[in-house]
Amino acid sequence: MTLPNLNRTDKDSIKWFILLPSGHEGPYSLNHLSRLRDKKKLSPMVRVWCEGLAKALSLEDALKLEVLPSLTTTAQGVPGQEYEVSSFGDLPPPVPLEVTENVSYESSKSPLRETVRNSAPISRLAVAVVALVGGVVVGMLLYSKSREEFAFRRWPRMTPELHQRILREHRFDGWTKPIFFKEYLPRDHSQIWLVTSGFQACDVQAVFTSVPDRLLALSDEKVSFVARGQLAGHVAELAEFDFRDGTKLVPGLYEMEVKATQCKWDGVLPKIMSFFQGPPSEYLARTKVVLYSGGSLAFHETLAKLLKKKEERIIQEKGQAALYWQDLQQKFETLEAITLQVEQHFLDFLDAPPGTHKARTKAMVDDYTRKYGAFLTSFVLELERGQRSRPGTGAAMEANYELLIRMTAKKIGLESMKFIEEFLGTKSVPSLKQQAQFRSRIRSSYGLLKKEINQKLVQVSLDQVK
C-alpha cells in the first residue's frame, strides 16, 4: 500500500492518531506505535490515522506503507480505489470517519419474498404511512444536502474577523463526525473557545499545562489551570479558570487534556441524519494547543522573536556578570597593591639614619596622606555610594563582597594610622634596635593583610566558576 506526500522519515514524524470509540489519542510516531505493538501493549488491528488519509488504517497496514511521489495513490489489490489527499495548513487535521458499508442482498426467490407475495394485500393506510415516512426521510436528506456547510453563530466578545476565520478553518464532514477540538481566544485572552465540526452536546472539562520555555513571557514560569464549559452549537466556551500554577493565562503552547461527558446529538436533525444512533457518551483527548489570539502561525513567529530576545538577554547578563567579577577582582588587587606600597613607604622611612627620624616624620606623614590616605578614603566612599545607588539589586554574595572590600580598605587605613601615631609619639631618637622592631612589626602586620586579600582573591575565582 502506498500513500502520497509521505517521505521516508514519516515513521519518525509525530503525526499519527489512535482512533478510539470515545475519541482519539495522539499524536505519536509510527515507530512509537510499533514499539507498543511489539510489547503487546497495542493491538496490531487498532485503527490509526494521520493527515493525508481520507480513511483510517489498521496499525499493521500503516506500518507497511511505502512511498510514491504521486498526488493520489491506489491501494494494492483494489483497482480504482484511491485515498484522497487534503491539506489543512496550520489547522489540526480532521479525524476521518470510520465508514461501514452496508450491503443489501436481494433474491427474487427468497422465502421472505415468497411470504410477502402470498400474504394478504397491505392496507392502504399502511402504504400511506410508509410513503409519508419515506417522503419525510427523503425530504430531510435533500434538506441536509442543501445545508452541508459548517456554520455557527458569533459568540459575544468574538470579533467578526475571528468568526470568519473559524468558518474558513472548519468544514462540514458528515453528521456523525466525532469531536475534534480547535482552540481560539479573544484578543485579551480572557477566555477560550473550543470549536468542533461535530454535532454533539456535552459537558466539557479541560486541563491546560504550559510547555516549558514556550510561553510568550520573558521570565521562565509555569502556568496550569482547569476550565469547564458546555459544548453546544459547535462551541464550548471556557470563561472561568481554576489556576493550579500561576495567576493568569499567559499566551503560549500548552498540553491540553480534554474530557467530554454525557454527550448526545445536538438537535433533531443530527439525530435523524444519524439514524437515531447516539454518539459515544464520553470523549478523551491529549494534545498540544496554542493559546494565542493571533493563531498558531503568528504565535510561532512571535515566539521565535522572543527566544532570540531571551538569548540576547542571557548573553548580556553573562557579560555583565563577567564584568562584575572582573571589577571585584580588580578592587581586591588594588587593595593588595596599596598594602604593599604603604608597607614599603614605612620601611623606607625607617631605613633613614636614626638622627633624622624626628625631622623626617612630618614629611613622611604628609606624603602618606597625599598618596595613600586620601585614596583609601575616596575608595571606601565610592563603594558606599555605589551600593546605595543599587538598592535591592545585588544578591547576598554580591552584598557580602562589597562589604568585605570596604572593611579591607578601612583595615589598611587603621593599621597605617597606628604606626603613624607611634612615629609621631616618639620623643627621642629611636635606636637601631627600636627601628628593627618597627620594621618587624610592619612586615608582620601588612603581611597578614596581604594574606587575607589573597584568600579573598581565591574565593572570588571559585565563586565566579560557580
- Uncertain stretches of 5 or more adjacent residues: 68-92, 97-120, 389-393
Beta-strand residue fraction: 15-25%
Which shape, going by the Cα principal axes? rod-shaped
- The SSE order reads EEEHEEHEEEHHHEEEEEEEHEHHHH
- If you compute it from the alpha carbons, what radius of gyration comes out, rounded to the nearest whole angstrom? 42 Å
What's the domain count?
Answer: 3
Could you say which structural class the secondary elements and strand pairing correspond to? Answer: alpha+beta
Q: What's the total number of strands?
A: 16
CATH topology description of the largest domain = Four Helix Bundle (Hemerythrin (Met), subunit A)
Average pLDDT, rounded to a whole number, is: 79
Distance between the termini: 58 Å
CATH classification class of the largest domain? Mainly Alpha
Question: Could you please describe the fold and organization of this structure?
Answer:
This protein is 45% helix and 19% strand. The chain is of the alpha+beta class. Strands 9, 10, 11, 12, 13, 14, 15 and 16 form an eight-stranded antiparallel β-sheet that branches. It is rod-shaped and about 150 Å long. The protein starts with a strand and ends with a helix. Mean pLDDT is 79; it is low at 68-92, 97-120 and 389-393.
Task: Summarize the topology.
Layout: E1 2-3, E2 16-20, E3 23-28, H1 30-38, E4 47-50, E5 57-58, H2 59-62, E6 66-67, E7 73-74, E8 82-83, H3 111-118, H4 124-146, H5 160-169, E9 182-184, E10 192-195, E11 200-215, E12 224-232, E13 235-238, E14 241-245, E15 252-265, H6 268-273, E16 282-291, H7 296-350, H8 357-388, H9 396-425, H10 432-465
Parallel strand pairs: 1-6
Antiparallel strand pairs: 2-3, 2-4, 4-5, 7-8, 9-10, 10-13, 11-12, 11-15, 12-13, 12-14, 15-16
Helix pairs in contact: 7-8, 7-9, 7-10, 8-9, 9-10
